[in-house]
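Consider the tokenized backbone below.
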């Protein structure tokens, strides 16, 4: 009797292509990981808040007349970006260890200079479509505003009487609008598909281009669901930033719009500096559940079998990750 090979059934785990990204599970995991690793995450948050404020204190005061100088502002921008990349790579490493239920320590925040350099270069490359998106959105908003202003500032009957002008306006406006919408969609999808490049730089020690390509392969099957997930994370991040901004403005109202400015709270400088560090500490601590949730989704997509974690995720029964 002839035998036929039995093909394995297609994967149907949480990370299989087309499987919905579990947004609620990811957020719940991030919160529970924060409560289980509070001491470690609090220490990390204190370090980043302290280093951030030390850089602010070291920066020379801004001139009375605002101006941009590459020899001054450009250098400090590069320093801020490099320090931010250094901590971001360390945070990715820490969140990967948390999601794999491995011990995490402060030394995990320190990465090799070569890895930080790759992260720096990859971040610059990643921001290219973001710049395209911002420019396209700005042009799109300007375009729509001008179209509305043009329509409202002309006599409708007189405008409609020139059929060739109407057709030219509709044709040019339609083509321009379509190009801008396509640019926004393309840039947005590129950002969503390449968002895990940092995790791959650390987790698989890939290069700049390889990490982008691998991330696109991982994210492409579920990019719409990832877009929704990223929107949730963005809203959460904006809330954290807004609360931090308002808290700091209570001590220094200068950044606020003129109608909302108030007198400076009379506090000694040392007290004010300590409060600023404390606010930065709470801001960083509040962001950890979002960072861990993001890594949770990455680990789920890369390896559906997963690993034991601070709480029992859907894939824990599959056994530990190799």
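A designed sequence for it:
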């Amino acid at each position: 009797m002839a035998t036929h090979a039995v093909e394995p059934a297609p994967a149907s785990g949480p990370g299989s292509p087309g499987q919905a990204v579990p947004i609620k599970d990811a957020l719940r995991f991030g919160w529970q990981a924060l409560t289980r690793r509070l001491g470690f995450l609090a220490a990390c948050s204190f370090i980043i808040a302290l280093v951030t404020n030390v850089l602010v204190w070291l920066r020379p005061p801004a001139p009375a007349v605002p101006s941009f100088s590459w020899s001054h502002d450009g250098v400090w921008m590069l320093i801020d970006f490099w320090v931010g990349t250094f901590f971001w790579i360390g945070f990715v490493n820490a969140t990967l260890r948390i999601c794999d239920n491995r011990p995490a320590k402060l030394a995990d925040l320190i990465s090799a200079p070569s890895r930080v350099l790759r992260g720096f270069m990859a971040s610059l490359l990643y921001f290219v479509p973001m710049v395209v998106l911002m420019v396209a959105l700005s042009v799109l908003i300007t375009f729509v505003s001008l179209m509305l202003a043009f329509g409202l500032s002309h006599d409708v009957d007189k405008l409609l009487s020139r059929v060739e002008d109407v057709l030219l306006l509709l044709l040019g406006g339609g083509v321009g609008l379509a190009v801008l919408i396509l640019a926004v969609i393309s840039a947005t999808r590129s950002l969503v598909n390449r968002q895990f490049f940092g995790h791959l730089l650390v987790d698989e020690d890939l290069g700049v281009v390889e990490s982008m390509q691998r991330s696109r392969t991982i994210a492409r099957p579920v990019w719409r669901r990832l877009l929704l997930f990223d929107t949730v994370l963005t809203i959460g991040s904006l809330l954290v930033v807004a609360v931090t901004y308002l808290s700091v403005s209570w001590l220094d109202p200068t950044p606020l719009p003129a109608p909302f400015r108030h007198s400076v709270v009379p506090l000694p400088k040392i007290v004010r500096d300590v409060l600023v560090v404390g606010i930065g500490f709470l801001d960083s601590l509040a962001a950890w559940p979002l960072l861990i949730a993001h890594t949770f989704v990455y680990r789920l997509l890369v390896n559906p079998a997963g690993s034991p974690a601070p709480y029992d995720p859907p894939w824990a029964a599959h056994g530990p990750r190799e």
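The two ends are 40 Å apart (CA to CA).
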